[in-house]
């Protein structure tokens, strides 16, 4: 399935990483839980991010986040939420 035209630049994928003494690893078992916390934080904070940069800024007060541009046109942005080990 492809992403509808014009939607990718407004879409942000949330990727959860674990920081273990400076080494980053993808979190698979707690990723859904952390994504839920991200959504809850956005709803409870009243944040209304309109751009990927706004989203990263809204999350930065609660988590370490890194925003990555899409690798190519038609792909979503990625915000990496870094959680402690």
Give the uncertain stretches in residue-range form: none
Structural class: alpha+beta
Major sheet size, sense and barrel closure: 4 strands, mixed
Q: In one word, what is the shape?
A: globular
Question: Can you describe what's shown?
Answer:
This protein has 85 residues and is α+β, with helices and mostly antiparallel strands. It has a domain at 20-78. 27% of the residues lie in helices and 31% in strands. The chain has 2 helices and 4 strands; from the N terminus they run ββααββ. It is globular.
Q: Notable features of this structure?
A:
85 residues, 4-stranded mixed sheet, 27% helix, globular
Secondary-structure topology with pairs:
Blueprint: E1 12-20, E2 23-26, H1 31-45, H2 52-59, E3 64-68, E4 77-84
Brief digest:
The chain has 85 residues and is an alpha+beta fold. The protein is globular and about 40 Å long. The chain has two helices and four strands.
